[in-house]
C-alpha cells in the first residue's frame, strides 16, 4: 500500500528548510524530518508520513540535532603518521587516497589478494556497501570483506536460511498490532527498539486479550511489561523452545496439515523433542515447568503468534540453533505468512539489512547469492563485468582479526565501526591491530578507540551529510537524504571507496577503473538494484525516482508493489519449496562457570546510548539517564562479596579484567552479572567490557558469544578516590582529559548532562601530590576561588566559580560534597557556603538520576509521586514524565512495580 507522501524537501520559513530522511540509529528505521538553517541542523522531528514510526521518535532520535558537529569532535581531514609511534599529522585528502591505494596494491603484489581485508559496518548505506564490495571482490580479488553485522545479525541470517531457505524476515511492523500472542526472546526492545515497543504498548492497551511473553535472563523493562517472563539461564533457549514444542505436540496444538503440506524434516525433530519435557527443560533453563507449559499454550492457541528476537538469541555459540528452534514453533503451528504471525528478527543497526542484500559480508554476495557457489560467483562476475570472482572463502570478523594477528592479512581497512571496543577479547583484538602492517580507519568522529591504531585516517561524512538508502527490519527501503554538506575534507563513505578503487585500478588493472565510474549514489543504487532481479528479494524495479514518488517500499517489489508479508502461499525458497525443520538440541555455552569464575556475565544495551558512544556522548540529554558504567549484581551476591552499593569491584574472566562500580540489582538473578556494552577505553581505564568477553563463535554463523562469559567479582581494593568536574565542551574536554585514564587503577572521563565533563578516579594509595597538582592544573583549578587543601594528608578540595555558576571542582579523599556540586553544575542552586561544603561540615542535597530526559524528571521525583499514591496517569499529569517520547514509560512502570509497599501505604 502506498502511503500519502509529504514532500521530500519543504521550505518551512524564509531561512529554514526541512529534509526527509531516516534516523541513523536502530533498525526500526524511523522517518525523520531534519530542519536546517544555513549549514546548521536546528531540529529533528518524526516524519508522520513514514510507515515505521508515523511521527514518533525515541529519546535518541529526538536528540539527533545535538549530535551534529562540524568542529574538532569530528575527523575533519585525512591524517597519517611517518611511522608507528610517531604522531599523526593532517595530510591532503588526495595524498591520503594515493597512500591507501599504494599500500593495498603493494600488499596484493607482494603477498596476494588475501593479504588485504575490509572490516565494515551495518551502519553504512547500501550504496557504501555496494562500492566496497565491488572494490574487494572484483578489483582487489579477495572475499576478505566482513562487517560488524557478524557480531549482530549473522545467526539470524543462518537461522532463516537453514529453515526458510532465504534470509528474509517474513513479517512486518503492522503484525505488532495484529498478533494475539507476542513472544519476545532475547530482546530488550523497550531500550533497543523503543518506537516498535511503543507500538506494542499501544496494541496491548487496545486489545486486552493480547498475551506478551518475554524470554530473558534479566527482568528488563521489556520483561516487566510481559504477562509472562521466563528468566532462563543464559544460553538455554534451545531447550526452552524444544520444550514448548514438546507441550504443543502433547496437547495437540501443532498444525499437522501445515507441517505435511509445507515442511520437511519434522519427524526427526518430533522424535528429538520427545525427551525435552517441561520438567527436563526446567533443569536446564531454571524456569518453572508450569511457565513453559503456559507459554506453549499461549503460543499454540493464539489466533496469530508473532515472535520478536535479537541478540539474546544471536550472540551465542548456539545462535543459529536458537533461531531455528524458535522458527520451528512457527512452522509447527502454521504461524507464518499470515497477518499478526511469523518469526520476526529485529535488526540491530540501521542498515544491517542493506548489507545483507548487497552481499557486504564474507559469506554473502549481492542479491542474496552465495560466494561458495560457482554459479552465483559467475553470475555476479557477469553483472559486474569482470571475468571471475575469487573463490577462496573470505575471513569472517573474528577470523579476520586472527588473520591479522597471524600476519596473513597485512592491510586492514576499517570503516564505520569501532572494533577496539566492540569485538570480544580486546587484548587479542588490540594485539592484532598492533601487528597489522597498515591500518586504514575511515571514521566520522574524533577520539574513538580504534583511531589510536590507525596508520591512515580517512575523514568520513556521516548522518545527516550522507545520501543513499537503508533497509529496515521489515524489509522496507527508505531514502536517506543529505541535509547539510560534510565539514572539512570529509566525504561520503562510498566516495572514499570509489576514489581509492580508481587509484588502485590504475596501479593494478587500469581497465577496471571503469567499474567505478559512478557519477552519483543514484547510479550505485541502480546497479545494485538490478542485481536483485529474479532473486527472492527482487527490487530491480526500484530507483531513487520511484522511492521519491511512492515513498519507502518493502521488498520484494514486483509489478509496482511492495510486499508486506512473505510465504503467504506456504511455498519456501528451498529446493523442494518446503520449509525445513532442523534437528537441534541444547548445547552448553562455550565456557561454563567454575569455582574460579562462578558468575555468569551477560552484556547489552542501555536506553539512551548507542554502542561505543561516539555520537550519543555528544548529546547532553542522552548522558543523563545513566551517567557512569557499572556492573549489576544480585543484592545477595553483593553482600556475599562484601560490596557496598556503588563500591568498586574488579571483574576477572579467563581473558582479562576490569574495574567497575557495582550496583545491587534484583533484575539479575543470583549468580549472574550484567555490564552495559557502551563504555570503552576512550571513556574509562581498562579495555571496557570486551576485555572480559569470549571470542568463541557459532559454527555456522561465526557470530561470537558476546552474551556469555564466566567471571569472578571481588572488591577492587582502591580506597583512594577523587572526583572532578569541569565546565565546557564535553567532547573537547574529554579529549584533553583522556590521558588521565591511563594513570589510575580506576578512572572514567564522562560528558555530563550538565555539560562539561566529569572525572572519577580511584587507586590503591594516595598518589604523589605532584600528580594531583598536575590534575588540578588540567582542570583549570590551579588558582581556585575556594580551596580546602590539606597538604599533610595529601588532599585537595577546590572549587572555581563565578557569576555564571560553577566552573570546576576537584575533590580528593572525602567525596561527600560531590552530589551538591554536581547538582549546582546542572543548574541547581549554589550551596550556601562552599567552604563549609568542602570542609565536610554540611551535606548538600542528594542528586537523583534523570529518568525522563524529554521533560527532565528525576527518579526521586517519580518515587515521591508513587509514594503519594500516583498511578501512571497521575504521574504524567503532575510531573510531566513520560509525556515526551515515551521511552521512559516502561521504567516508570518498573519503578511502580518495585514499590508495592509505597503504593499500599497511599
Ligand atoms: N539504545 C540502544 N538501542 C539499540 C542499540 C544501542 O546501542 N542502543 N543497538 C542496536 C543494535 S546494533 C542491536 S544489535 C540491537 C540489540 O538489541 P537487543 O538484543 O534487544 O539488546 P541487548 O541489550 O544487546 O540484548 C538483549 C537481551 O538479551 C538478553 N540475554 C542475554 N543472554 C541471553 C540468553 O541466553 N537468552 C535470551 N533469551 N536472552 C539473553 C540480555 O539480558 C538482554 O536484555 O539494539 C539496537 N538498538
Ligand atoms: N560486549 C558486547 N559487545 C558487543 C555487543 C554486545 O551486545 N555486547 N554488541 C555487538 C553488536 S550487535 C554490534 S552491532 C557492535 C557495534 O559496534 P561498533 O560498530 O564498533 O559500534 P559503533 O559505536 O556504532 O561504531 C560505529 C563507528 O562508526 C563511526 N561512524 C558513524 N557514522 C559514520 C559514517 O557515516 N561513516 C563512517 N566511516 N564512520 C561513521 C562512529 O563514530 C563509530 O566510531 O557491537 C558489538 N559488540
Ligand atoms: S526507535 Fe529510536 S533509535 Fe530507533 S530508528 Fe526510531 S528514533 Fe531512531
Ligand atoms: Mo548490533
Walk me through the topology.
Elements: E1 9-13, E2 16-22, E3 31-37, E4 40-46, H1 59-62, E5 78-80, E6 89-91, H2 93-111, E7 116-120, H3 126-140, E8 145-147, H4 154-164, H5 175-178, E9 181-185, H6 189-192, H7 194-206, E10 211-215, H8 221-225, E11 228-230, H9 237-250, H10 256-262, E12 263-264, H11 266-273, H12 278-285, H13 289-301, E13 305-309, H14 311-314, H15 319-333, E14 342-345, H16 352-358, H17 374-384, H18 397-405, E15 411-415, H19 419-422, H20 426-435, E16 438-443, E17 456-459, E18 468-471, E19 476-480, H21 493-508, H22 521-530, H23 544-550, E20 553-554, E21 579-580, E22 599-604, E23 631-633, H24 635-640, E24 648-652, E25 657-664, E26 672-676, E27 709-715, E28 720-726, H25 730-737, E29 746-751, E30 757-763, H26 769-778, E31 786-787, E32 797-802, E33 805-812, H27 818-825, H28 834-838, E34 850-852, E35 857-858, H29 859-867, H30 872-879, H31 889-897, H32 900-905
Parallel strand pairs: 7-8, 7-15, 9-10, 9-13, 10-11, 12-21, 13-14, 15-16, 16-17, 22-26, 23-25
Antiparallel strand pairs: 1-2, 2-3, 3-4, 5-6, 5-17, 18-19, 19-20, 22-27, 23-26, 24-25, 24-27, 28-30, 28-33, 29-30, 31-32, 32-33, 34-35
Bound molecules: ligand MGD (2 copies), iron/sulfur cluster and molybdenum atom.
One ligand MGD is lined by residues 121-123, 148, 151-152, 311, 315, 348-349, 415-419, 421-422, 442-445, 448, 460, 462, 466, 493, 603-604, 611-612, 614, 677, 689-690, 693, 706.
Amino acid at each position: 500500500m502506498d502511503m500519502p507522501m509529504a514532500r521530500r524537501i519543504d521550505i518551512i520559513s524564509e531561512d529554514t528548510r526541512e529534509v526527509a530522511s531516516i534516523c541513523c540509529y536502530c533498525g526500526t528505521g524511523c522517518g525523520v524530518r531534519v530542519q536546517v538553517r544555513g549549514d546548521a541542523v536546528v531540529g529533528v522531528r518524526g516524519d508522520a508520513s513514514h510507515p515505521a514510526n508515523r511521527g514518533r521518535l525515541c529519546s535518541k532520535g529526538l536528540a539527533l540535532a545535538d549530535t551534529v558537529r562540524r568542529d574538532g569532535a569530528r575527523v575533519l581531514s585525512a591524517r597519517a603518521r611517518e611511522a608507528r609511534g610517531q604522531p599523526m599529522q593532517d595530510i591532503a585528502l588526495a595524498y591520503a587516497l594515493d597512500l591507501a591505494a599504494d599500500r593495498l596494491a603493494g600488499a596484493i603484489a607482494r603477498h596476494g589478494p588475501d593479504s588485504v581485508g575490509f572490516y565494515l559496518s551495518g551502519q553504512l548505506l547500501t550504496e557504501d556497501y555496494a562500492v566496497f564490495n565491488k572494490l574487494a571482490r572484483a578489483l582487489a580479488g579477495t572475499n576478505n570483506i566482513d562487517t560488524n553485522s557478524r557480531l549482530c545479525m549473522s545467526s539470524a541470517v543462518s537461522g532463516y536460511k537453514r529453515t526458510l531457505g532465504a534470509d528474509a524476515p517474513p513479517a512486518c511492523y503492522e503484525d505488532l498490532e495484529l498478533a494475539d500472542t507476542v513472544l519476545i526472546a532475547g530482546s530488550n526492545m523497550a531500550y533497543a527498539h523503543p518506537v516498535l515497543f511503543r507500538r506494542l504498548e499501544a496494541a496491548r492497551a487496545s486489545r486486552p486479550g493480547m498475551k506478551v511473553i518475554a524470554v530473558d535472563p534479566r527482568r528488563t523493562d521489556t520483561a516487566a511489561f510481559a504477562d509472562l517472563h521466563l528468566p532462563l539461564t543464559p544460553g538455554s533457549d534451545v531447550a526452552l523452545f524444544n520444550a514448548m514444542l514438546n507441550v504443543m505436540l502433547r496437547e495437540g496444538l501443532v498444525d499437522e496439515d501445515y507441517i505435511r503440506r509445507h515442511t520437511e524434516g519434522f519427524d526427526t525433530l518430533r522424535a528429538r523433542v520427545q525427551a525435552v519435557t517441561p520438567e527436563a527443560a526446567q533443569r536446564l533453563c531454571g524456569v518453572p515447568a508450569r511457565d513453559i507449559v503456559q507459554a506453549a499454550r499461549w503460543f499454540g492457541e493464539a489466533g496469530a503468534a508473532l515472535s520478536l528476537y535479537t541478540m539474546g538469541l544471536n550472540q551465542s555459540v548456539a545462535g543459529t540453533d536458537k533461531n531455528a528452534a524458535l522458527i520451528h514453533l512457527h512452522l509447527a503451528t502454521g504461524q507464518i505468512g499470515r497477518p499478526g504471525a511469523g518469526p520476526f528478527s529485529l535488526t540491530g543497526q540501521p542498515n544491517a539489512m542493506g548489507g545483507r542484500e548487497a552481499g557486504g559480508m564474507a559469506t554473502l554476495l549481492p542479491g542474496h547469492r552465495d560466494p561458495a557457489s560457482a554459479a552465483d560467483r559467475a553470475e555476479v562476475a557477469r553483472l559486474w563485468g569482470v571475468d571471475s570472482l575469487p573463490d577462496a572463502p573470505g575471513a569472517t570478523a573474528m577470523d579476520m582479526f586472527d588473520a591479522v594477528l597471524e600476519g596473513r592479512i597485512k592491510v586492514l581497512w576499517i570503516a564505520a565501526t569501532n572494533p577496539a571496543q566492540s569485538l570480544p577479547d580486546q587484548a587479542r583484538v588490540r594485539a592484532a591491530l598492533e601487528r597489522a602492517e597498515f591500518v586504514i580507519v575511515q571514521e566520522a568522529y574524533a577520539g574513538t578507540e580504534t583511531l589510536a591504531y590507525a596508520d591512515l585516517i580517512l575523514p568520513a561524512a556521516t548522518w545527516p551529510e550522507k545520501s543513499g538508502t537503508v533497509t529496515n527490519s521489515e524489509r522496507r527501503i527508505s531514502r536517506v537524504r543529505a541535509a547539510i554538506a560534510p565539514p572539512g575534507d570529509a566525504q561520503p563513505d562510498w566516495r572514499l571507496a570509489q576514489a581509492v578503487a580508481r587509484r588502485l585500478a590504475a596501479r593494478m588493472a587500469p581497465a577496471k577503473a571503469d567499474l567505478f565510474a559512478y557519477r552519483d549514489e543514484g547510479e550505485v543504487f541502480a546497479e545494485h538494484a538490478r542485481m536483485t532481479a529474479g532473486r527472492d528479494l527482487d527490487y530491480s524495479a526500484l530507483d531513487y525516482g520511484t522511492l521519491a514518488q511512492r515513498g519507502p517500499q518493502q521488498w520484494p517489489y514486483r509489478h509496482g508493489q511492495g510486499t508486506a508479508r512473505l510465504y503467504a502461499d506456504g511455498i519456501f525458497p528451498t529446493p523442494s519449496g518446503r520449509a525445513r525443520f532442523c534437528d537441534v538440541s541444547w548445547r552448553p555455552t562455550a565456557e561454563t562457570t567454575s569455582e574460579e569464575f562462578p558468575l555468569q556475565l551477560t552484556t547489552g544495551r542501555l536506553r539512551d546510548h548507542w554502542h561505543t558512544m561516539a555520537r550519543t556522548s555528544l548529546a547532553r540529554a542522552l548522558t543523563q539517564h545513566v551517567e557512569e558504567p557499572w556492573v549489576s549484581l544480585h543484592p545477595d551476591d553483593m553482600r556475599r562479596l562484601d560490596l557496598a552499593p556503588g563500591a568498586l569491584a574488579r571483574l576477572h574472566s579467563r581473558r582479562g579484567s576490569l574495574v567497575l562500580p557495582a550496583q545491587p540489582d534484583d533484575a539479575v538473578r543470583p549468580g549472574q552479572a550484567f555490564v552495559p556494552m557502551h563504555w570503552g577505553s576512550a571513556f574509562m581505564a581498562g579495555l571496557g567490557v570486551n576485555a572480559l568477553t569470549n571470542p568463541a563463535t557459532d559454527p555456522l554463523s561465526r557470530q561470537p558469544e558476546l552474551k556469555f562469559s564466566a567471571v569472578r567479582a571481588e572488591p577492587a581494593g582502591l580506597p583512594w578516590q577523587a572526583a572532578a568536574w569541569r565546565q565546557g565542551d564535553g567532547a573537547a574536554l574529554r579529549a584533553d582529559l583522556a590521558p588521565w585514564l591511563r594513570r589510575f587503577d580506576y578512572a572514567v572521563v564522562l560528558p555530563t548532562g550538565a555539560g562539561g565533563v566529569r572525572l572519577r578516579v580511584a587507586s590503591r594509595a594516595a598518589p604523589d601530590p605532584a600528580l594531583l597538582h598536575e590534575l588540578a592544573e588540567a582542570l583549570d583549578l590551579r588558582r581556585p576561588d575556594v580551596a580546602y587543601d590539606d597538604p599533610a594528608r595529601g588532599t585537595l578540595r577546590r572549587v572555581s566559580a563565578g557569576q555564571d555558576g560553577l566552573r570546576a571542582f576537584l575533590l580528593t579523599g572525602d567525596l561527600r560534597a560531590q552530589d551538591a556540586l554536581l547538582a549546582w553544575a546542572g543548574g541547581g542552586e549554589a550551596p550556601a557556603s562552599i567552604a563549609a561544603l568542602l570542609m565536610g561540615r554540611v551535606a548538600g542535597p542528594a542528586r537523583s538520576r534523570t529518568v525522563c530526559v524529554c521533560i527532565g524528571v528525576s527518579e526521586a521525583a517519580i518515587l515521591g509521586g508513587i509514594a503519594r499514591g500516583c498511578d501512571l496517569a497521575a504521574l504524567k499529569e503532575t510531573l510531566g514524565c513520560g509525556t515526551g517520547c515515551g521511552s521512559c514509560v516502561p521504567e516508570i512502570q518498573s519503578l511502580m512495580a518495585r514499590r508495592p509497599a509505597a503504593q499500599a501505604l497511599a
